[in-house]
């Protein structure tokens, strides 16, 4: 899965193009991609942000179409006519453009999907609103659900489990000494789930483990962290499975268990974590 960026050779062979921000590649975006014909591609208009449902560097894991990235600042001041001209010049053999019903473009977002149909010589296919259980599928809606712990709804809108990808980092060592062993990762630029405990799946080196994941700010040092405990994984007995700090860790969030709590001592915290694990086992 490769981003061809500004490859003129590849652009010359694109016959259909989906245009949008595509933060997350959710079910609405997938509907756009299904309406591409022939040699299809994606024009991803990027807006600078501190958080993404799926940071751009991981986008190629979820789509096998060439992705052409454009910074929003490079097109936001163009008129509708200039925007369409830019597309036709860069994709000279384009036959079809696919956009969502709420697609806006040009300076001050003055032009709509219908205007694109009027301005372009290509066929413009406009995808209707996608609803899941009466909820409109939008990146902003998914972000809202993730941030308030409604992870099951977010997953339905995404069409997959929400995940965070990172590398193992050194924790405080309390897990192994006083609590239960956990793997710590940076949250990076992924959208931050509501602080609390989640039933999850953790993938390391192609091994999949049922897990309980804790999201929040450590009260001891104020660092935002994601910690995952692998359920029923015996670190001593399963010596053939080794994890290193440079290993990539993927955590899929499946179900919210409880909000973050403050405990008076480590023993009360440990009891709560054991309760989370029991919940996860029952959920399994």
Task: Explain how this protein is built.
With 284 residues, the protein is of the alpha/beta class. The protein folds into two domains: 8-131, 3-Layer(aba) Sandwich (Rossmann fold); 161-283, Riboflavin kinase-like (Elongation Factor Tu (Ef-tu), domain 3), CATH 2.40.30.30. Helix content is 24%, strand content 30%. It has eight helices and 15 strands. The protein has helices at 8-11, 27-34, 80-90, 113-119, 139-147, 151-158, 174-177, 266-283, and strands at residues 16-20, 40-46, 67-71, 96-100, 104-105, 111-112, 123-127, 131-132, 135-136, 162-169, 183-185, 196-204, 207-217, 224-230, 248-259. The strands form four sheets. The chain has a six-stranded antiparallel barrel with strand order 10-11-14-13-12-15. Strand 1 (16-20), helix 2 (27-34) and strand 2 (40-46) form a beta-alpha-beta unit. Helix 5 (139-147) packs antiparallel against helix 6. The mean pLDDT is 87.
Task: Please give the structural blueprint.
Layout: H1 8-11, E1 16-20, H2 27-34, E2 40-46, E3 67-71, H3 80-90, E4 96-100, E5 104-105, E6 111-112, H4 113-119, E7 123-127, E8 131-132, E9 135-136, H5 139-147, H6 151-158, E10 162-169, H7 174-177, E11 183-185, E12 196-204, E13 207-217, E14 224-230, E15 248-259, H8 266-283
Parallel strand pairs: 1-2, 1-4, 2-3, 4-7
Antiparallel strand pairs: 5-6, 8-9, 10-11, 10-15, 11-14, 12-13, 12-15, 13-14
């Amino acid at each position: 899965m490769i981003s061809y960026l500004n490859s003129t050779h590849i652009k010359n062979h694109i016959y259909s193009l989906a245009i949008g921000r595509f933060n997350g590649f959710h079910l609405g975006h997938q509907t756009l991609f299904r309406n591409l014909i022939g040699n299809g591609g994606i024009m991803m208009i990027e807006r600078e942000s501190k958080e993404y449902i799926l940071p751009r560097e991981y986008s190629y894991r979820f789509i096998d179409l060439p992705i052409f990235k454009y910074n929003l600042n490079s097109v936001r001041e163009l008129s509708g006519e200039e925007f369409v001209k830019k597309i036709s010049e860069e994709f000279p053999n384009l036959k079809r453009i696919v956009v969502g019903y709420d697609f806006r473009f040009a300076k001050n977002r003055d032009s709509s999907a219908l205007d694109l149909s009027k301005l372009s010589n290509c066929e413009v296919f406009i995808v209707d609103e996608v609803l899941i259980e009466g909820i409109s599928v939008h990146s902003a809606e998914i972000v809202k659900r993730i941030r308030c712990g409604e992870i099951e709804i977010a997953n339905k809108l995404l069409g997959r489990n929400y995940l965070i990808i990172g590398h193992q980092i050194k924790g405080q060592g309390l897990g192994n000494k006083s609590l239960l062993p956990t793997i710590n990762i940076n949250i990076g630029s992924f959208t931050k789930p509501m602080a609390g405990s989640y039933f999850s799946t953790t993938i390391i080196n192609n091994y999949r483990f049922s897990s309980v994941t804790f999201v929040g700010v450590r009260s001891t040092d104020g660092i935002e962290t994601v910690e995952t405990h692998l359920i029923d994984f015996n670190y001593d007995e399963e010596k053939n499975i080794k994890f290193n700090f440079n290993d990539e860790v993927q955590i899929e969030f499946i179900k919210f268990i409880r909000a973050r709590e403050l405990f008076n001592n480590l023993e009360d915290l440990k009891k709560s974590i054991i309760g989370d694990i029991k919940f996860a086992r029952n959920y399994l």
